[in-house]
Amino acid sequence: MSGIVESAGTEAARRLPDGQGRAGLPEGQAEQERTVRHTLMDVALEVFTERGYTDAGLTEIAARSGIPAGTLFQHYGGKRGLYLALWEEFREEQEHRTAATLTAERSRGVNDPVALFVAGARAYLEGAWDNRRLARLLAEDDGPAGFDALRRQWDRAWVRRNARLLEVDERRRAGRVRVSVLTTVIGGAARELGDCGDGTEAREIVDEVCGILVHLTTPPG
C-alpha cells in the first residue's frame, strides 16, 4: 500500500536519520523545511475544500501561506503534488491508527477475526471523523488526472488486507465478494461521516455501522 504514491517532499524527510533533514541538511534547516511543507499542505486543504481541486489556484495557495510559489513547486511540483501529498498523509494516518488498534486488541488476547475486523473498522471510521475535512475532499470526484486509478488501486489493496484479517480464502469468488461488500460499507460510512453535524451524530453512525458489520460477518444459520 505504501508506495502507491510517492509525493514530493513527504517520504524523504521521514526516512532520514536523526540530525539530518532532506538532502542531508542540518536539523534546524530541515525543521524549517518541514514547517514550510506542513504550512503549504494546511493551506492547500483550505483552498481545495473551498474551491474544489479544479478551481483551486496555486497563486492563492502561495498568497495565503505567505510562501513563494517557487518554494511550493520545489517541494510539491505543483497542485497535483500537493493533492497527492494530502492523500498520502490521510492514508498513512488511517493505516497507523488501525494498525495500532489491532495491536492493542491482540495484546488484550483478542484473536477472533470478526472482532478484530470490527475494531479496525471502528478505528478507521473514527479517523475519518477526526480528519473529516480531508476525508470529504478525497471522496469527491474532483481530483487530479489519474487519481481515480490510484484510489481504485488502494481500494483493492484494502480489500485484500481485510480478507487476510477475516481469514477469508481469496481464491473463492464468494469470499472476495463478501469482503468487498464489507469494505464498501466502511468506505460509504466514512463519506457520510463528513456530513455529520457533531460528534454525537458521528458516534451514532460509527456504532450503527459496526453493528451492521457484525451482522454481515455472522455465518448464516
UniProtKB/TrEMBL annotation:
MF terms (GO), sorted A to Z: DNA-binding transcription factor activity; transcription cis-regulatory region binding
DNA-binding region: 57-76
HTH tetR-type domain location: 34-94
Region (Disordered): 1-31
Statement: the UniProt record of this protein carries the keyword Cell inner membrane: no
Keywords tagged on the record: DNA-binding, Transcription, Transcription regulation
A Pfam cross-reference name: TetR_N
Residue stretches spanning the membrane: none
Stored Gene3D superfamilies: Tetracycline Repressor, domain 2 (1.10.357.10)
Keyword Transcription regulation: yes
PANTHER family named among the record's database cross-references: HTH-TYPE TRANSCRIPTIONAL REGULATOR BETI, HTH-TYPE TRANSCRIPTIONAL REGULATOR RUTR
Protein name: HTH tetR-type domain-containing protein
